[in-house]
Structure formats: C-alpha cells, structure tokens
Amino acid sequence: MVQQFNPDDPIQEALTPPSSWYTSPNFLSLEFDQVFFRGWQAVGYTEQVQEANSFFTGRLGNIEYVVCCDENGKLHAFHNVCRHHASLLAFGSGKGSCFTCPYHGWTYGLDGALLKATRITGIKNFNVREFGLIPLRVAIWGPFILLNLEKETLSQQDCDDDVGMEWLGSSSEILSTNGVDNSLSYLCRREYFIECNWKVFCDNYLDGGYHVPFAHKDLASGLKLDSYSTTVYEKVSIQTCDGGEEQGQNDFNRLGSKSLYAFIYPNFMVNRQDRYGPWMDTNLVVPLGPRRCKVVFDYFLDTSLKDDEAFVVKSLEDSEKVQMEDIKLCESVQRGLESPAYGSGRYAPMVEKAMYHFHCLLHRNLMK
Length: 368
Ligand code: FES
Known about the structure:
Cofactor: Fe cation; [2Fe-2S] cluster
Bound molecules: FE2/S2 (inorganic) cluster
CATH topology of the largest domain: Naphthalene 1,2-dioxygenase Alpha Subunit, Chain A, domain 1
CATH superfamily of the largest domain: Naphthalene 1,2-dioxygenase Alpha Subunit, Chain A, domain 1
Strand order of the largest sheet: 11-17-16-15-14-13-12
Function: Catalyzes the first step of the osmoprotectant glycine betaine synthesis.
CATH class of the largest domain: Alpha Beta
Structural class: alpha+beta
Low-confidence stretches: 246-256
Family: Belongs to the choline monooxygenase family.
Mean pLDDT: 92
Pfam families: Rieske, Ring_hydroxyl_A
Shape: globular
Number of helices: 8
Helix content: 25-40%
C-alpha cells in the first residue's frame, strides 16, 4: 500500500496516494507506529498547565496521557494509567495535588511517584519506587506543549535542547518572528468530530487555497487569492495570503494584514492572521479510526481584544461557518474515496505543493 505512492515522481506527473491510505485499518496502525509514536506531537498549549497542580489529559491512538505542572512549577507528562490494574487515573482537565485512582485508591504525586498503595498488607517483592507512573517526554515550544511517545528513551535534557529544530526545522525562527509566539492569550476551544480519515482534513488544508473560491465564498471575499504562496520546509509548510481591501504595505517580516497558515507535520496547523486584529487559531487533527477524526480548534487573541464581545462572537461565528463548510467537503471526499470508482487522483502542481510535500513525508516515514 505504501509503495503505491511514488514520491520520486515530480508533482507534475505524480499520482496522489491510493484510496487505501484513507480507508484501511492496517494503514492507520502503521501510521500510529511510524508517524504518531515517533518524534514530537503537539498536544496542547502552555496556559492549560500554567498554574501549579494543574493537568490535562488526552489520547493518541492507544496512548492515554496526562500532562501536569507540579507544585514547584515543573512540567511532567505520564501515561495516564494506574500501575495497579490499569484504570485511567485522570480525566479531562483540572487541578489537584495528586492523582487518586478512582478504582482502588492508589495515589500518585504530580511527579509520578506512587504515594499510597491502599490495602496491600501482605504483598511481597513490591518496591513502591518501581510503581510510579510511566513518564513521557514533554517539551514546550512557544505557546505549545509537545509530547514524544517513542519507546526508546532519550534523557529529558536531550529532548529539550533540540525540540524547536527537531519539530519545526528551519521554519522555527520564521514562525516565531511572525507572531507564532506567546504574545496572544487563550480564548476558547471548539472540537469537531468528522467522518473522514485524518489525512482528508490535512489535504483540504494543504491545497493552497484551491477550494476557497468554490467552498468558502465569504472567506474568499476577504482574501486576495492570487497572492497565495506556499513554501515548504523540512516538516513544515507555510501558506500565506494577503488580505482583501485592508491589505497594507507590510512584508511578511511583520504580519500586517497577511494570513499565515502553517502546517506542522503530521497533524497540527497554526493559523495566524491580523485581518480582524491579532488572532491565532490552532487545529490539532486526532485520528480516531480509518474514517473518523477529531479536530481540536484552540483560539488565541490579543488580551486587549478579549473583552470586545461583539468582535469575539463575530470572529468565532465566521470561523464556525468555515469549519462547517470544510466538514461537509471532507465527509464527501471520504465517501468518494470509499467508492470503487476512485483509485487515486492528480495534483494541481501550482497550488497543491504543500499537499504533495505532506504525502512525500508520510511515505518516507512509513517506509522506514
Ligand atoms: S486500578 Fe488503580 S487502584 Fe486499582
């Protein structure tokens, strides 16, 4: 299946990946092993665990994780699984000085240490120090929290040193100097469950604005679509587009009224725009099955605008409209991919460069 896509064909001649990449449960298992459980994955943002004793949980494939900030402000991440009989320990997000298992009450500190194992009188060959939570490597880049779910161990220090370069490569500096930083504060989260393979959503994002004039007519009116440009880096692609009438003279060293759409392989998007004021949203695409995914939208805004309710409501409504339009497209594509009529397609070379880059990266990872 993997080899049915040929990354050596130039985009002008290449076929898109076969539909089996988007429908096969075995292919998704391979993606978890080779893509999601290797390298850094975005899982959240720093404000979620800014305060001492705060935590949030999540799931990627069969990995349940909890990220927390201990009472000394140190960030940790663990497998969110009790060492007694495997119950999940923490749910959702919140605050607390320890994790108490809801099943039989074993209690762990936020540093992962097993603090209390209830009613184990008579147990033999049991060392409490060996039954702490299993740690995961965690790192911060800008406003984002990253996990590395690889089984092979590197020290936490090794990870922290090169996370920016490893995760973003040479685009790291470009993103941070173009407003993907801590200057905006968290506004809210929206989650969408979509009946499509996770890559269908990514592909839709990576078509260089190709679908915008057809599928997002309101959005298209605020963008100069002929200014769309795409640049690919190691594991990142950045699409930019000028705003409509409000377009200023600024180049991209300052955002001005440009929009920046960064795709960070494999499943994280950062959209930074100043069209309506300093605004950023991130999209995390979480595979839930061969034909189902969840997309988590987190919105960030300049603090000075957070109290402007009319502005916030209007901006979120505009965003929601675009998401609904995209969901309809993605679910339609998934049904088409499952039809015997379709095997694979072609790229529009001038606009779908970022999509081709995504497929080539995926192919490379899956062949390892
Ligand atoms: S499963 Fe957690 S205490 Fe028993």
